[in-house]
Write a sequence for this structure.
């Protein structure tokens, strides 16, 4: 029988009613002649009892700076609880199911706590359960290092688990079920009527995901692309047709054809902080630049929108990293200022490469919406602007209108 990996996000598992909906999607799969392999995230979102954010709050109530190994061990519990509860829901409905931790499902990772990378998957236990007509329900987002330490894969990491398991099972399709009915032209939390995009290339989704559209984890898309696995992003309640991201012999459905549109979607990252380092005149500039970037890398701080000149080094960081960055740079004797309250907004589209005037349209539409731009950067498939976080909604609306992203039928 053919395996089909189905991944269910946390918001699809919060209540008993929702879990029944999830069970329905799994039972339908069995009825269609497939062997479902299920991957789950922790139940619910911030504020829900067993959600990842609640576990983080719990440990922070004891220690502001927990040991990374302890933190990962605690966070891995959220998905384990979710797997057990869904497996028991299936059992109650007469569909045999077995919950598994990530390590029971054979996921081996390196030892970068909080952001571990999968190094191998041995799906023996998954195959065994499935051959006993028992649906494997795997706790996503977690693994075990070769020396037996429990690790987590970073936020949104269950998507990675799902695709890695699928690759190990040589499975062709992964269905990612979530609280929206597919990948949309903008975050529906900001633009509620943004239409769903029927087909996207791996690169477009990766780009959107890297730039903040958290609907699929970029690393999951990368593994899917390498293993030629088709991804389907679907609503758990099965409204709409979802989004297909697939390899294939061209054509929109195949997803391999570069989109005809200049801009496919908008992504954004809130909570950015702008770091500016000046007073470089008294130093050897290349030496000090190297020192700064070296220190940041050693402390695992990712930086973005980097600007270098003889007078100034500037970049942006996640708001969460402000304290660490201030501490790390304090010893260098430089003039460092860190301003919070920024956001990055990006337009993405494989079709913008070589099309003149896209930047002009971005700048003009933001200016007309009274949104000041502090910095920009671009690549062959995106243009990003640093703006004030308070202007985010106005900026997304302006770009959404400028690039006609309300039109359906892509
Ligand atoms: P899950 O818990 O199912 O993994 P996520 O929160 O990771 O769900 O991803 C789904 C959310 O992604 C949606 O609720 C939506 O707000 C957000 N999102 C951001 N950008 C987009 C987009 N372009 N299309 C669809 N959803 C998006
Ligand atoms: Mg997610």
């Amino acid at each position: 029988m053919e395996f089909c990996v189905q991944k269910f996000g946390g918001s699809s598992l919060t209540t008993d009613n929702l879990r029944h909906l999830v069970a329905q999607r799994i039972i339908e799969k069995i009825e269609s002649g497939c062997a479902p392999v299920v991957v789950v995230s922790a139940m619910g979102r911030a504020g829900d009892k067993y959600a990842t954010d609640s576990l983080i709050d719990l440990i922070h109530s004891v220690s502001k700076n927990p040991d990374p190994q302890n933190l990962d061990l605690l966070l891995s519990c959220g998905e384990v609880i979710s797997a057990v509860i869904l497996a028991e829901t299936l059992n109650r409905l007469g569909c045999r199911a077995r919950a598994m931790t990530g390590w029971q499902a054979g996921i081996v990772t390196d030892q970068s706590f909080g952001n571990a990378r999968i190094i191998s998957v041995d799906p023996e236990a998954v195959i065994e359960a499935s051959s006993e007509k028992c649906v494997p329900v795997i706790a996503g987002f977690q693994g075990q290092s070769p020396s037996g330490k429990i690790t987590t894969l970073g936020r949104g990491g269950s998507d990675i688990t799902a695709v890695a398991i699928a690759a190990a099972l040589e499975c062709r399709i992964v269905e990612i079920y979530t609280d929206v009915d597919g990948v949309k032209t903008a975050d529906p939390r900001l633009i509620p009527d943004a239409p769903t995009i029927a087909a996207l290339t791996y690169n477009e989704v990766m780009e959107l995901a890297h730039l903040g559209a958290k609907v699929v984890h970029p690393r999951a898309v990368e593994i899917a692309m390498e293993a030629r696995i088709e991804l389907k992003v679907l609503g758990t309640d099965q409204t709409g047709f979802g989004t297909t991201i697939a390899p294939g012999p061209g054509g929109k459905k195949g997803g391999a054809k570069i989109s005809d549109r200049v801009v496919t979607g908008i992504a954004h990252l809130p909570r950015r902080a702008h770091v500016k380092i000046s007073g470089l005149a008294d130093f050897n500039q290349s030496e000090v630049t190297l020192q700064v970037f070296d220190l940041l890398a050693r402390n695992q701080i990712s930086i973005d929108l980097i600007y270098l000149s003889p007078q100034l080094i500037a970049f942006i960081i996640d708001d969460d990293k402000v304290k660490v960055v201030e501490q790390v740079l304090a010893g260098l004797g430089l003039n460092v200022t860190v301003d919070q309250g920024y956001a990055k907004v990006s337009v993405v589209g494989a079709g913008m490469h070589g099309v003149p005037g896209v930047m002009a349209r971005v700048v003009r539409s933001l200016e007309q919406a009274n949104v000041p731009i502090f910095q920009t950067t671009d690549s062959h498939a995106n243009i990003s602007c640093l703006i004030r976080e308070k202007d985010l909604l106005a900026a997304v609306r302006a770009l959404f209108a400028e690039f006609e992203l309300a039109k359906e039928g892509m």
In short: Residues 68-92 form the longest helix (25 residues). Confidence is low (pLDDT under 50) at residues 249-258. The pocket of adenosine-5'-diphosphate (ligand 1) is lined by residues 9-12, 41, 156, 178-180, 183-184, 186-189, 208, 213-215, 265 (CB under 6 Å).
